[in-house]
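agent> fetching stored inputs for the FE2/S2 (inorganic) cluster docking request
agent> found them:
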Amino acid sequence: MSENRGPIGSDGLVDEMPEARAELDMFMDGLEITDDANKNRGFMIPSLRKAQDLFGYLAESVQLYVANKLKLHLADVYGVVSFYSYFTVVPQGKYKISVCAGTACHVRGSAVVFSKLFEKLALEDGEETTEDMLFTLEKVSCVGACGLAPVLLINEDVHGQVTPEAAIALVNDILKKENANA
Ligand code: FES
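agent> prediction call returned; pasting tokens
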């Protein structure tokens, strides 16, 4: 996990975002953390979820920060982070578009929705995030809204019965909004 880099956790994200760190501190101070590392394991997932919400992704410095607070090893935290696909260790776009690739959505054309979005966002093979860090595009497994298939999420917002045209329109709306705010 740490090729071409300095010491563990030296990415600096925790220090670059003091407000996020303070909010994470506040959240974790509310947990019943003890000196018994084993008992603290149960706090890993909620703490990491909160950390990811606040920092945008789980850089190594963030994982180390959480590990230290829970008196765990970085390897314990990394094991959890790498197990759950919900967690990400790379920066994400401001808008995360998650196209459901579950069976119901697939049958109703989610693959076409995905490929049209991929084209629209001018992503290259293997890329998930646009260069301007505005969008991240990913496929996810069933999000539990099969009756609305095909489904995509933009951050937390669920959009159902999405045609390729409707998906492109959603992106265009975001671009318009972002340009208006620029
Ligand atoms: S398969 Fe897409 S929501 Fe269930």
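agent> quick read of the result: DSSP finds nine helices and four strands in the chain.
agent> awaiting further instructions
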